[in-house]
Structures are given as structure tokens and as C-alpha cells.
Amino acid sequence: MRMILEGYYRLLKILITVLMAGLIVPVSMQILSRYTGVIPRYIWTEEIARFCFVWIIMIGAMIAVRDGTHFDVDVLPHSANPRIEFASRLFVNLAILAMALSFLWWGQDFFVLGSRQQSEIFGLPMWMIYVAWPLAGATWALFIIERIYDDIRGSGPTEGDMHGAG
Q1: Where would I find the Tripartite ATP-independent periplasmic transporters DctQ component domain in this sequence (predicted)?
Q2: How far apart are CA 31 and CA 49, in angstroms?
Q3: Rounded (5°) CA angle 58-64-69
């Protein structure tokens, strides 16, 4: 299972790189057409940029959960006692898991809503954006369960802050 998650993680890193390149092209075209007049105005660039931007945010959040670099707020005090630190990490990870499951649950409704809509310019199905929410929830859940498993086994946080969950 670890190898599958690692392969998925690497795929996400490749996708975010491709999407960043995909975002740079239409945004650059918008800037050039708006301020220089070198190229004509293309209305489709805004829509493509929006699609890329949404996916970059969601995939970036997926990667951050796996890396343990997603932010968390230090509500609980740090302790020198390893059991208390474990309980603190577990609390943070379970809170992230609850959020992930809510994205997965209610993201399905969001996806269904998008399956009945099309984008204005290209006529692309809006589910292509809305599927990012349940997919992110499922991915966060997998990655946070992996992190909880590692904590229980004693591997502890791999990266990120003291809580290891971010």
C-alpha cells in the first residue's frame, strides 16, 4: 500500500507542475494581449486559467497533507512527554481526517451539481472542476490515515512541524 501511495504522491507532484505550466501560458497571453496589443484578446484564456488554478490549489493541499507541511494552529501546548505529544498529533490528525471526510461526503453533492453544468466559454463540463473536492477529501483521508498509522507504529512525523500533521 505504501508503494501505491508513494506513486500517487509522485503523480500529484507531476500534475501540479504541469498545471503550473498550464496556468502560466494563458495568464501570459492575457497580460500580453491586455497591455501590449501584440496578440489579440483571447477570452478562453481566463477559463483555462481558472480551471488550472482550482486544481493547483487542491493538488497542492493534497501534497501538503502528505508532506506534513499543511498548516495547523498550536492550540495544544507542546510537551516533553512523548505520550502527550502523540496524543496531540493524533488529535490534529483526527481533526484533519474529519475535514477530509466532510470534503469527500459533501463534495459528492458538489460533483453532482457540476455534472449538470457547462462552462460558459468552452462548454466544458463543470464536473471537471467540482470533482476536485471529493478527490481531495479522499486523498487527504488516505494520506492522514497513513500518517496516523506511522505515528502508532512509532515512526513519528516524517516532515513538517512538531505535530507532524500540518
Answers
A1: 24-153
A2: 12
A3: 145
